[in-house]
């Protein structure tokens, strides 16, 4: 059966029953249909004094076209922990419409390790992304309106820093000239759109601790600079209040369920290649209050997702992760070892061994943060015993352990070994989490630290304009912010075609942007785009409602 | 008490109880919170063979800054009909975020004649507008993507007819150049954004009878022309299926309640000045199957809203309205009679009499459609008996009747006279509805017919390019479409400052656009904008969450 066939056969329970498993009463759930709900602000406030559960991060090797199954493993491990008698919940991100209509497909796990309702999660869900898009664009409209009606703040229209967003892959909007058409339409200027998942408002929603913190951070957004180079904030434009109102519902975490009827928090969805890539702090901290084990994921490979999870999310929210699971597949090892996609079906132990270098580097990297790691081999039917053994042996040689997991085919029954192992790791109390760099390090030094220690580049290439900009932000008091790297997810380098564990490369920095409200400096490296485009044949062309009234083509 | 204070004290019932009043079981309701729900497609299908109830249209004089209370009267009349023992429901439009953050304020009635939950209805509600925005912009992205990847359809990029939309008042986006930035970003071209309520996708959602009809109409959207002037359709871009999937939930009507716990359908929301201005056909036809009396409204004055309700919605959906209520206020009559807003508090019977000319012309106009009309005087505390009597006497002289209504202050108890009168009108069976013009009339003649018979203009001014374009569409087989006038709502003319009942003016047509999927030709007259701007001091500046956690400034 395909993922979608399995999802359609799901034996879903009313969302009130899922909430009850975590002690959340139906009064504290705002239903969206019968299988989705938002958790009330008052419930979240009421559990703040409780002890925290244990936090587990699921990350992965660099993604390959073979697919790794990070979300699938996150879901599987959550079900596995419940299966061995632990009270566990998972925390994952919401899906963006952009990739759904492009080529990525659904983002709700796979096989017998899925979160449902799959269609809703990959479409409008509870409307959070739409609320973020609206709040983001309201500020943009108010900013241009401010300039139009006299520009009291004396904004330098050449230095408007704030762009608009759309939850769409639309390359036509990357770079535009707006305010054309004469006096009634304002002052022409260059601008552009990013995809919503790259919005600073998305990052703020994911990092804010409550509505008051959300409003404060929204007010802190730098939208432009004056002629004298001083920043103009969203609160100078008086947009922070209305933006908060637009985001009030969106701030509440969403609760859904796995195929095994275990609770899943799905909230926030920044991409890990162009944003910080973690689900919301509110969802994670709430889950930690109501469950003993919380499994969360960070986007793409550990070089991007895990680094930002540790250096941005955990640093900001004071989270203490106690175990890391690095997901790998035999097929992805083979691709890293040089095998073409069409040849993945044939056994090739040598290629597996060769490709393990990519995995090895991620293991090393994760250990730098002081958290013990285990490798989950997400089993695929064509994997041979010799290939699996090659991965295990390699991982052992790196001082870690790799566990074969069959949750895709068997649900929780296929992943109890990993669940037991993770519990043992946590009970061993060996985690001593610390971020990679201290907050007081200089901004450029932070970039260099990540480039050298995580990406293993020899140097960072950045022209004077970029270095000057970083120094200017330091002078303005933003020097203690962490950096949020925007880089291709396919390689440790900025070249998406360089697989494995390359050395001797440089990290070219193209642009830096400050997210003063979210609290980080975005560092755009190589050719990465903050507004993706659609492929030659977008998956949207095949998406439709079929004769049975079901949605085809979405996955 | 203010509108919002009254709304906050509402004694709301669970939405399942409201559904039960109409015989809709809780299984057929998809809840959005505890006070909103969508009605299932299967329920709607199951009632198709039932007899229809009676349809009543509420329209108004040209709006003035004094406020008329059309929605308030629609809500009040619905409650009034229920109060006199009739099974009645109301059908109104959803609110747009644009005006909420600009200056219009809420769109859910007022005083003791409101629909709740007011905040939700004026913010994201059930996400329908966001779905429409997404579906609209997906087609735009797929269109530019098609051109980017080789332009197989041979689209003339100078003749791309399809713009993007945003649910925002953002003049900066009215006219843009997109696809800038070099080869990777496509072919630069001029374009722009309209507000979502002006989207053809919005019109299609409001006019489609079911999902299959929706998909067919979406496919019919003309997005561009080839070098040989032949049209390129949305289905040529293969976007119709995915757009339908995005709109699947949005197609289902929303059910909420009045302050008196009577059912209210709130679905679709095109503006009547730039679009056809009526709630959805699905909501109205469903309401007619489950209630004996259905009260609906059309936007702005009868020159725009009622004309399009009759000539577009009723024509297309085969609806047979049996009574029209024209809402007027003493204050608005005074303004039409030349009194300034600050002087409205003082009695001025002469000004009332003078201003009645505007009302008189709307009465005359409505009668041209063969439906009996009654005037509702929406009472305001400062109205004097002599002023009210002046309106009544004037209306009598026009062969109609005016009834004083106090629903704002008293709810249904204040409007039973009107309710009884409307029932009597319907039981009199005098309605013989017919559209103003036959479908087979030429497009330009249709414009002239509305201009002369409704706006009372002497002539239509349109240059050769526009007349040629209309003839071209006729040659392509679109000659039988009705026309959808886009014009200022403040006057019968295109000059918003000309109140009363002017004569001897001309109607300048600036642009024509074809909505082949919705099934009409949009005729843009005078200075009307399809993307509004924000005022100098947008209401968004005062919108916030107050210390009690309630939303301030939204109304």
How would you explain this protein's 3D organization?
The structure is a homodimer of 555-residue chains. By secondary structure, chain A is α/β, with parallel strands linked by helices. Chain A has 3 domains: 302 residues, 3-Layer(aba) Sandwich (Rossmann fold), CATH 3.40.50; 109 residues, Domain 2, N(10)-formyltetrahydrofolate synthetase (2-Layer Sandwich), CATH 3.30.1510; 83 residues, Formyltetrahydrofolate synthetase, domain 3 (Roll). Chain A contains 19 helices and 25 strands. In chain A, the strands form 6 sheets. In chain A, strands 1, 2, 3, 4, 5, 6, 14, 15, 16, 17, 18 and 19 form a 12-stranded mixed beta sheet that branches. The radius of gyration of chain A is 23 Å and the shape is globular. At the A-B interface, helix 7, strand 9, helix 10 and strand 24 of A face helix 7, strand 9, helix 10 and strand 24 of B.
